[in-house]
Amino acid sequence: VEVEAEVGDLTATAFASDSLSECEGCAISIFQDDLSICVGTPLLITPQLEGGSAEVLDWTWDLGEGSMSNDMGSLAHTWEEIGTIAAFVVVGDTAGVCLDTANFLVEVLPPPAPELGSDVALCDTAGIQLVSTFPGASSVWNDIQEGSTFLVTDPGVYWLTVEAFGCSGSDTIVVFSAPDVALDLARDLVLYLGDV
Length: 196
Prior knowledge:
five-stranded mixed beta sheet, rod-shaped
């Protein structure tokens, strides 16, 4: 819509739009990085806002799954289904003149489920190397050692806790001593050809 106004010898022309688009020269800017979280874990989303004050702006959130909100500033949300969610937040001045939108993705992931395998016998003096297969996650062995691998040299119960995207999973393995193998070959026998 074009609006023209005259004040004395000056004529001003302005354009107005009823769509939710950015206006040139706006002092409001919002940005939100893509996020990852485990399913069923609350996530606090705090977008970066420049220009304006969060208290005097109108906020509209769409976090997928049919969930909408008008919470100002940060917003906490929990997703109950695994998948990639397209989300956005729109901020504007209370007059609705200046608006900006931040589009972002939320990857909702299953909790980590480490698998150390079946219980195993320790029969080699070199030990057994246990491995965590979760790159980028925090792996802690027996609550003391961090890292993706753990060398077992003694029998015992060993566990792994993996933390990623706000949740954790664990697994346990028992490493037992291999029994000593005693071979009893009895006494030596001498056999002659023709003996049955």
